[in-house]
Specification:
single chain, four-stranded antiparallel sheet, two-stranded antiparallel sheet, about 110 residues, about 35% strand, alpha+beta
């Protein structure tokens, strides 16, 4: 199993969520995040005063899936979250040793389904 963690633009999340659901991927965890990279933040104006926002708001989407589903998930994330501009985000893939459902004690794939 693998954990796929993606940091994406907030406005891309709704379309990604619908695409994942349509293709049968239902289990995910979503968190608000903030960060900076090549984008280095952005500049804003409030009441005529310029200010710099160093951390840009993002959405972090985490999923644990079978190894054979990784490329499908990557393709969906890239398709629905790419605007071909700096700041589209990142995808991280981690190995998962074990998953245990707390309620029933199920392990492995059965705990994820």
């Amino acid at each position: 199993m693998k954990k796929v963690e993606s940091i994406i633009r907030a406005e891309a999340f709704i379309n990604l969520r619908e695409a994942l659901s349509t293709r049968g991927f239902s289990g995910l965890t979503v968190s608000e995040a903030a960060g900076c990279g090549k984008q280095k933040g952005k500049q804003g104006i409030f009441r005529g005063n310029k200010f710099e926002i160093k951390l840009v708001p993002r959405i972090k989407v985490e999923m644990v899936i079978d190894d054979d589903q990784v490329e499908d998930i990557i393709d969906l994330i890239v398709e629905y979250c790419s605007t071909n501009t700096v700041g589209d985000g990142k995808i991280f893939i981690f190995p998962v040793e074990e998953v245990i459902r707390i309620r029933s004690g199920e392990r492995g794939k059965q705990a994820v389904l």
